[in-house]
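Minutes, methods subgroup
Present: GH (chair), OT, SY

1. OT presented the first of two proteins processed in the latest run. Sequence and structure tokens recorded below as shown on screen.
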Amino acid sequence: MDAANFKLLAEDEPPACTVEKPDGASPLLLVCDHAGNRIPRRLGTLGVSEADRQRHIAWDVGAAELARHMAARLDATLVLQTYSRLVIDCNRNPSVRSAMPARSEVTDIPGNHDLDPRERQARIAEIFQPYHDRISQIMDARDAAGQPTILVAVHSFTPYYEGWGARPWHVGVLYNRHNRLPHLMLDLLRSEPGLTVGDNEPYAVNDETDYTIPVHGEKRGVLHVEFEVRHDELESEAGQEKWAARLSHMLSHAVVHLAAEAAMPTAGRVT
């Protein structure tokens, strides 16, 4: 079979992403790069057990539910990625090895060994590219309509990481070149008693390990922030609601602050 005829997703399988509240009035645009753990039928299980497919190696546990609750509270558009990061990580440049990992943490991923170039390209063309194209289309349409955009990426992280140990942070605020909104969110989160807040912890955004913030946030010049919530905080609906209420309230406060600082519709622009 030649590359042009190599098809990964069957006609009855879901698209690469879904959009909720497409007409949301908020300047906040929420995205969830690791929302789903689905694997295309053609790939079977990638040689990974059901138990491992429920672990963080396959998706961001609780992140999709958190993002949905936030979107509802904020009246914000939300883009959710459908397929497992083990198929292709939509927050990595597809050219890096970790985009289709042969090993994730301490778990072998047999279905990603010695990938045929046609299959690699199919994963990019049918999952990665449509997801990011949809984000770009939404942002382009908002620009054309004069609606400002502030990009918010919603993630979760494991309470324990092999080789590092227990992670003390309840939430991390991530950024790279532009820190205007992240620093505001750090101040707001640190004002709440009992929270251990990570400043670029447990990760920091950079061009090799991240894609969404560098491409849709930094290159476009819109304000942006990435949240990482420790996923044991998100394993119940009560926890998801609690964090959605907390982050939504703080983001709403930040939008008001930014609007006062620089009159809308330019409040979404990095200066």
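2. SY then presented the second protein from the same run.
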Amino acid sequence: MTTTTDALHLSAGSAAAGPYALEVTPESAGWGHSGLRVLELAPGGTHSLDTGLDELVVVPLQGGLVLECDGQTVVLTGRRDVFAGPTDVAYLPLGATADLRSDRGGRFALCGARARRRLPVRHLPVAEVPVELRGAGRCSRQVNNFGTAEVLEADAVIACEVITPGGNWSSYPPHKHDETSDVETELEEIYYFEVAPGPQGQPGLAYHRVYGTADRPIDVLAEVRDRDVVLVPHGWHGPSIAAPGHDLYYLNVMAGPGPERAWRIVDDPAHAWVRGTWAAEDVDPRLPLHSPAGTPSIGASRP
């Protein structure tokens, strides 16, 4: 049976639960490892949570907060919005209770994964978040690598965020990571989208594609709007296409059965040739968007 768009595209608000504007758990997604919640706090708002079986990376999407966990206090400066540059993040271990408070209010992503090891609470300052420019020309995008294996110590969760200027394609060429081999790791993936409005506040849109292999069919072509989600249990995924005039943001949350925490991908052979064209093109001059001080790395090895 082919899994289709209706099952894997969650429109904004459709997966709200309790205090969360979005709640995707391994159980609700029908898989075993990765999850994502989005918490919205009014000015002066507070929230307490138990991480349970999951480790979490707390990512300010808008605003800042103070959290207390395991006797430690972490102050997250945050940011104006997801298009204002990278943010500092916090790591919370499994089996912990955390108290969150936001004096000015905001919106915060809780990127989760089922974990086996209990690691300490940590704060990753924004100055230590690598900003990478991938692709070239109309395939240019910016990646803020706050939660990749090389940057943040964790047991299972892998997370990053991608900013694609209006009119560009990202997650391209289409790629997959649903098997374990020397060139690929098995990872479930969540795409959480935010779409910048037009100059007069017009709502934007984007498109996201997921399609399967012969033995594991899947067929998704989603018109995504601000705060929508697409689940990728397996298969080739990409492109993510930003409409002209509307910059596109997405937060990727990944986890798999392990035991290795790594992000290795293979390109769809029908489209892999596009990487070879990037050497003759420049990176889109609109990038980086509000990167911190320093020179971003330039790379084309990742989707």
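Chair's summary of item 2: The radius of gyration is 18 Å.
Next meeting: continue with the remaining queue.
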